[in-house]
Write a structure and sequence with these properties.
The structure is a homodimer. The first copy, chain A, is of the alpha/beta class. In chain A, 27% of the residues lie in helices and 28% in strands.
């Protein structure tokens, strides 16, 4: 393959990830148009892609038809979704995209559903001998469990999540969060684990990274860590999923007693994945190679250990006189 | 002056601002060492400055002595503080810094105190004919005022601030926030206004910028707006302060009825100020010129209108094998 046109959906502010895909195309010496799609023309990624396309909300009945139209128009080889809310929907429509020549970098619907719903995820982890924080119903809490963690069962990026310290707080907050889930609060060191799974369900690479600091639910300071227990755990989680495909990021806590708890499993590129990639685990290149059916450039786990990421705000600046004014 | 050594305190993740100061030094063809100081070695700015120095907490009695030591050691001409908590303290010690040859880019203590305390700020604004949201005590609320805004009286970056919709929420939250302040909730368009004041209290330039989106209390999408009412308002706020000096950022809301409410006044470079600077209002260069007593390169208000900023996460990457490992 000498050409791979990419469509990133819900591209938002994922500028660095898209730049890293551009680098991967360059390394492979493949041509490739990079198209981003978002509800907003004011997405920073609109200014790093070759073409930015406006799309309706993921919840709109027009969303999938619009994406199919864009895939045909731009002859997209690979569609890479970047938020949780659309994964199951895209998985359901895999065959429609295949008919227009587009591979979607997504797992089966069963796996997307499992990742999205923390109750299903908790049951799955148990079947493979792993732990997640205990889940409670509000009426099961007798006081012994405080503090607990309250969050939406289908939440993303810590939105609306909070620590609850006593029954009056619980009583107050439980009705303020739709689909509230009450979770055992586990303290310890926070990790994310990135991984990629090929067409046959083989786990190609797994990279744990310690999270020192977060901002708006996303890592702002972290470092890779060659922790063999976490590498084994990440591989086990991904290898046993039904129909896993593509890139994943899971969040874990290593409790003070050494027990590992899996908090979240995202069936897409996680927000902090540029750290693993920059440390040498070239997930964009692996994904491109897997989708094209070409040999992998490496299966070495030789990413840099202790490689640190310190995030800061950078910006795209757009003069009002640029084409189309504020809306491109 | 051919040399200006700069010390940025509480430098944190203000990478872009420090880069813009470097550009300003280059434009002036001045030599200058850029030193950053922070409690953390893991500050992203540590990797864009010439020297990064660790300092104790602002609340430590050793903080000012340590800064004085650094100013002597690096022959600092200008100290630029970047968070609210240290402004009054630095203002109080101006003379100590002058004795070691360092100018501090800060207003008088009276003005720093006024900016830090929303009650004082509210009284000040009233004396110059401007509005801020009404302030209440918890026992004054009779239900007619909801929704209200609850926040610490001395808060920064929206930390702990929240909308309160009814008396049971108020009752619950009022004790969870130290130094709680209950403020009238005003809805409308959000603006920040940046400005710079010279040694004689003259307002050199004022730039309003509309804020479309915020993240963790800091602007993530915005655009400059040549709004003459807001320019006049910003100038009036700065021109009437007792002993104002250096750069300021204030937050305003233009309510649906056109009334302007001033929410906050920060006596330092605001987080979104790179937008104004990149639009052509070169605040770093003005500050350097003012402090050196050299003529201003321009007093033109010819910054670009409708100039848009779309922020995204960028990062500094640090291999573990770099000097000193994780701690530089």
């Amino acid at each position: 393959m000498n050409r791979c046109n990419l469509l990133f959906t819900s591209s938002g502010r994922r500028v660095e990830l898209i730049q890293l895909f551009r680098f991967a195309l360059d390394e492979l010496a493949w041509d490739g148009l990079i198209v981003t799609a978002d509800m907003s023309a004011r997405a920073a990624t609109a200014y790093v892609s070759d073409v930015h396309e406006l799309v309706p909300s993921v919840s709109s009945p027009d969303y999938i038809p619009r994406l199919l139209e864009l895939c045909q128009q731009h002859q997209i080889h690979l569609l890479i979704p970047l938020i949780d809310w659309e994964l199951s929907l895209l998985a359901k429509h895999q065959a429609d995209f295949e008919r227009v020549g587009t591979k979607v970098a997504v797992s089966t619907q069963e796996t997307c559903d499992l990742c999205f719903d923390k109750r299903q995820l908790s049951r799955y982890l148990k079947t493979i001998g792993l732990q997640s924080p205990a889940l409670y119903n509000a009426d099961e809490i007798d006081g012994a469990q405080f503090p607990v963690f309250l969050k939406p069962f289908d939440g993303s990026a810590s939105r609306d999540a909070r620590i609850i310290r006593n029954s009056s707080e619980l009583k107050f907050f439980v009705d303020t969060i739709p689909n509230a889930l009450i979770q055992e609060y586990v303290s310890g060191r926070e990790y994310a684990i990135d991984g990629v799974v090929d067409q046959d369900g083989n786990v190609v690479c797994v990279v744990p990274r310690r999270q020192f600091e977060a901002r708006s639910g996303e890592v702002s300071k972290g470092a890779t860590e060659r922790n063999s227990a976490l590498i084994e755990l990440g591989s086990r989680v991904l290898a046993n999923l039904p129909g896993a495909f593509g890139c994943f990021t899971m969040d874990c806590i290593v409790a003070d007693d050494g027990q590992v708890y899996v908090l979240d499993l995202n069936a897409r590129f996680g927000g902090g994945m540029p750290l693993s990639i920059r440390s040498g685990a070239n997930f964009p290149r692996w994904l491109l190679e897997i989708c094209a059916g070409t040999p992998l450039h490496t299966t070495s786990q030789n990413w840099a250990n202790g490689f640190m990421m310190l995030r800061y705000d950078q910006a795209i600046y757009v003069p009002a006189t640029s084409e189309g004014g504020l809306v491109r």
